[in-house]
Amino acid sequence: MLGELNEMQIDHFLLSQAVGRIACTDGKIPYIVPVTYVYDGKDIIIQSNLGKKIEIMRQNKNVCFEVDAMDNMANWRSVIVRGTFQELKGESAKTSREYFLNYLWPYMTSGTVHPHEHRASDQLVDDSNRIKTIMIRIKVIEKSGRFEKQ
Length: 150
Hints:
Blueprint: E1 2-4, H1 7-16, E2 19-25, E3 30-39, E4 44-48, H2 52-59, E5 62-72, E6 75-88, H3 90-104, E7 134-148
Antiparallel strand pairs: 1-7, 2-3, 2-5, 3-4, 4-7, 5-6, 6-7
């Protein structure tokens, strides 16, 4: 059975996932890239370092965001969000980063999973690469979702 997700199902799905794809364009060539995100019930929050997607979104704030989960070809869900890019600064960036890290930190890989990367005498893990320099909000304009279940 193919169907459409209602708003509550869409919100629940966005809240339950952590990886999505953000699509943007410079007006000539589309660009899509996977990102780690959180959904705060209203908007998508992402952290990033400066790169191609940030440069493109600074020029064209219209973006599309997609999240999917697939058990098999006959059992899947997909949500598409149309929105606008906002680069957060100051207190709003700090608040969003705290929300982002508090929500996702328990799911990030522990340094003990990769003991070969850490000296035995120095078990402190450098988490600085997990914190990106730019905080982004995708202001949701419209969202839709579909599913197939057999």
